[in-house]
Design goal:
Length: 400
Amino acid sequence: MELLSKTLDRVKPSPTIAVTTKAAELKAAGRDIIGLGAGEPDFDTPQNIKDAAIAAIEAGKTKYTAVDGIPELKQAICAKFKRDNGLEYTPAQVSVGTGGKQILYNALMATLNPGEEVVIPAPYWVSYPDMVLLAGGTPVIAPATLENDFKLTPEALEAAITPNTRWLIFNSPSNPTGAGYSRDELKALTDVLLRHPHVWVMSDDMYEHLAYDDFIFCTPAEVEPQLYDRTLTVNGVSKAYAMTGWRIGYAAGPEKLIGAMRKIQSQSTSNPCSVSQWAAVEALNGTQDYIPENNKMFARRRDLVVSMLNEIDGVTCPNPEGAFYVYPSIAGLIGKTSAAGTRIVDDEAFATALLEETGVAVVFGAAFGLSPNFRVSYATSDDALKEACSRIQRFCAELT
């Protein structure tokens, strides 16, 4: 009898975590490594949030809590949805988990039956397809190409939907591209969904507050109220509040779905960390003044990276609306050979050679479902970004 489940054969480890781990190992071995793979802000958690966590510890708020969130946090989440998105939810419609990933996983586990499909626009966050597979479903990939600014078109969405479709997973601004959908672009997609009442929407809004220039964020249930009863709106405190390690994600949706997610969480992790929940209350209810200040720095970094990468012959780097990623195409470099003799047959070979020869760690595009590209996280210092992009420029200039 085999020890391991056959389910594991359906999934692979996270490539982004693998890149970050490899970079850390090389750095520990003494290599000069610049890691551009991790999807987390380099800012510290704001002091008011840390103070709230310390106060919770000192007040003894370190016991088990309700399975899917303390009442105070659920109230704060309801207030956030009303304030930021114009969406009315009750605490009974809210689930709090150990990060946004658990929220998504719980929802898929609670709803998918074998053979049911989930439409995922590509490029996609690396975990979406594998979570669908773990839950017994079938990912259906809908391409969102460079020619369309990495945004799903209504025609591509329509073509991907079948009678077996259970969910569309929607992410704006996007990981890995930073692409953000305007209200009109999103309305065109929701019009398609209205024609298919069996399809639910899982909207991953984790990068909501990381929006630049004149881009205005919107979410599906806000744009099309008729989708409210079949939308799970997912968010968290990791990105905007620099709280990746605190592990708090949340979602709001129909009570029946939230109850099913609660049941799964009750038999897996139970409640999220009590102290992190109290910190999240302060994050959502407290001052938001540092978000636009942080965004100014992110926008400056984006402009730096986009400018330097677009100076490279054979590389095309769109200017994204949000998040802290760029997703340049290397179509013009495929087939060339690096200075150390590595043939660039695909984007994985490019990323591997770049790390080995220059010490710059990026994530190859195939991990996100669309090649030939690579992802850069610009959530690091200006100096590190300048040096990394200079190394990428030299690496590409030496390709023959």
